[in-house]
Specification:
Layout (H helix, E strand, L loop, with lengths): L8 H6 L28 E2 L6 E2 L3 E5 L4 H12 L3 E6 L4 H4 L10 E5 L5 H8 L4 E4 L12 H18 L4 E7 L16 H16 L4 E5 L2 E2 L6 H5 L19 E2 L2 E2 H13 L7 E4 L5 E2 H13 L14 H14 L10 H7 L22 H8 L26
Parallel strand pairs: 1-2, 3-4, 3-6, 4-5, 6-7, 7-8, 8-12, 9-11
Antiparallel strand pairs: 10-13
Helix pairs in contact: 2-8, 4-5, 5-6
GO molecular function, one term: protein-containing complex binding
Subunit structure: Complex I is composed of 45 different subunits. This a component of the hydrophobic protein fraction. Interacts with BLOC1S1. Interacts with SLC2A4. Interacts with CLOCK. Interacts with RAB5IF.
Family: Belongs to the complex I NDUFA9 subunit family.
Length: 396
């Protein structure tokens, strides 16, 4: 028999001086009797990671570059997340801290397994597809990842009664792209375009984001240019010397915020948004600025040479693919070079992230931080003003 000792005025009020002892049961609202988390105990609204805002979101591609930012922002506003993963669970395990206990759930899936997809979206009212691939492998082609996969996910979401579907695509996707570096049209661009069409066919009210080159921590835009595989002394091989390519890169946190804002706004159904940065730059000016930030040239900021050398490209790409068939070293592969050489052409009249209430981040504020690990003399304690900051590139 267990006994509870009470003292003071509380004991005089609860325990009578004469008669039988009354037993009082105090039930906590924070737990349920069957041992499962009681969602009703969470604070309602967007009060933080320990709240519940009513959105249950499944994020495909949660372990990817953009997915990690999206999960963090969803968890910050009290979203319950179901995160499908493939391969090793520990790739997704770090996302557990994006929400409170019981708010982040994991489930294994395969993009070709319809049963696992249905299980992942069964209880969700919002599904976000961020699955993408920059290069093909022996197991997954561009068509598998960008066309068949989104079609399958969108169809199952419609059949399971999901309310909202958000799909991340590519800004320069088109059915008949003109090859630049490649000898034939880019399958990456074609598959991204066909993926949009497939999503619209299966889920007509889907929201689609067309993103430009996305930069940020662990990106494949700045870091593919900053790696030693792309430079040879002061020579940086670029298509048409970088003078005919115009880029409008966007910060990954801005893209994630736009996706989260769209998930919370029902008026974004059937809409297409362009995820582009606030300014346009020549690729040559961007690369020159990147290398000046990294090298800190004491002799004066001379401009780095950017020349298109097909032989150099071919040898470097062949070496990268031969040494690492599964993953191209430095992100150096032909489709990546084709994407890098493509000019961003946003369509007029199509809404952007700013229409979703996102304040865009200028590259001048973020890129120096992103390139800090690549900086020469980064362990050298320089004196104030010894290495002046190079001026940012001129916007077009």
């Amino acid at each position: 028999m267990a006994a509870v000792a009470l003292s003071g005025n509380l004991a005089n009020k609860i325990i009578p001086k004469h008669g039988a002892l009354s037993i009082i049961y105090i039930k906590s609202a924070s737990y349920s009797t069957d041992g499962k988390p009681n969602i009703a105990a969470y604070k309602r609204g967007t009060g933080g990671r320990s709240s519940f805002n009513g959105i249950v979101a499944t994020v495909f591609g949660c372990t990817g570059f953009v997915g990690r930012y999206v999960c963090n922002k969803l968890g910050k506003i009290g979203t319950q997340m179901i995160l499908p993963y493939r391969s090793d669970f520990y790739d997704a395990n770090r996302l557990k801290v994006a929400g409170d206990l019981g708010q982040v759930l994991f489930t294994p899936f395969d993009i070709r397994d319809e049963e696992s997809i249905a299980k992942a979206v069964k209880y969700s009212n919002v599904v976000i597809n961020l699955v993408g691939r920059d290069y093909e492998t022996k197991n997954f082609s561009y068509t598998d990842v960008h066309v068949d996969g989104p079609r399958r996910i969108a169809r199952i979401c419609r059949e399971m009664g999901v309310e909202r579907f958000i799909h991340l695509s590519y800004l320069n996707a088109e059915r008949h792209p003109q090859p630049l570096v490649l000898r034939k049209p880019s399958m990456y661009k074609i598959s991204k375009y066909l993926g949009e069409c497939a999503v619209r066919e299966e889920f007509p009210t889907a929201t689609i984001f067309r993103a430009s080159d996305i930069y940020g921590s662990e990106d494949r835009f700045i870091r593919s240019l900053a790696t030693g595989w792309r430079s040879h002394g002061n020579l940086v091989p670029v298509y048409k010397n970088g003078m005919e390519t115009i880029k409008q890169p966007v910060y990954v946190s801005d893209v994630a915020q736009g996706i989260v804002n769209a998930a919370r706004d029902p008026d974004t159904r059937c809409q297409v948004y362009q995820a582009i940065g606030p300014k346009r730059y020549l690729l040559a000016d961007l690369i020159d600025w990147f290398y000046k930030l990294m090298r800190k040239d004491r002799a004066g900021y001379r401009r780095y040479d950017m020349k298109y050398d097909p032989i150099f490209f071919s040898l470097r790409v062949a070496a990268a693919n031969m040494l690492s068939p599964a993953y191209p070293f430095g992100g150096l592969h032909w489709e990546g070079l084709e994407k890098e050489s493509t000019t961003d052409r946003p369509e007029k009249g199509v809404p952007t992230l700013e229409d979703l209430g996102v304040t865009l981040t200028p590259m001048e504020d973020q890129v120096p931080w992103e390139l800090k690990p690549f900086r020469a003399y980064q362990y050298y304690l320089d004196k104030l003003g010894e290495f002046p900051q190079p001026p940012p590139p001129n916007a077009l």
